[in-house]
């Protein structure tokens, strides 16, 4: 969530003085076992749940309010005097383990469930809760996790790199001279990478030279097996650690952004792709419709046949300047300056 923090700090009104609390990651067990995954996770736990709350508690004595830019850190609200903390909630993923089993919750683990409860108590204690979409707000309200008078819908913005119209050097691409479908984001279960790969395999039967580029994730063992089973290993490239300019270049040259998620709180890649003028085929989710409006194409989540049909239609039709401008126009409705102003106004009202 560095993007959200950086954009907020850059666009806050001049009369707001803000300081960032982002301590460097400290190694404890990792000093002696630098290659140990267990040691890294233990250090991460200690940093997040012990070191950071101590720093926030000290800092809260010097400021009027504390804004937490990621709800997975909502436990920090407990370190702030009552009524002076706000939390930005991006989605409810971290709380799904607390939902009834009938709501298709992930497998429950005792430690993760207890941490989720502790984080949720922090969210419920916050004086202000901001969400990126009406859909996320409705989910919080429906479960009674947040009171309506504390809730503010404040959509994210789009970074300027995605609004530029020139093409960046793309020499880092393996398939820079071949058409490709793009997916941006992680490869966790709700992203439905299984659908992404199944759709791409069928599309490639018609467009033999089509490639798939996945940006930002890392294949799981099951996903690698699906790639092997579908014979796609030589047609797929995965890239990570890209700058925003490099990612913008990927969007601009992509034939289409394919985004088959089962659940989303906002869907920032949809907004970024539209800002670049790129066609979008996404799951028909309320949050994604809030972002994409009429500028994107939507399919029922998990419906491989519908996705294949939609992608093939996009690839078959010429991408005109008018269509690209319509997509950019939709993206221009989202501004980081508006995001920052709305958050600032909520705190000013709180502190009156």
Automatic annotation (TrEMBL):
It comes from the Bacteria. Keywords: Transferase. Signal peptide: none annotated. GO terms for molecular function: glycosyltransferase activity. Residues 35-161 form the Glycosyltransferase subfamily 4-like N-terminal domain. Transmembrane segments: none annotated. This is Glycosyltransferase family 4 protein. It comes from Thermogemmata fonticola.
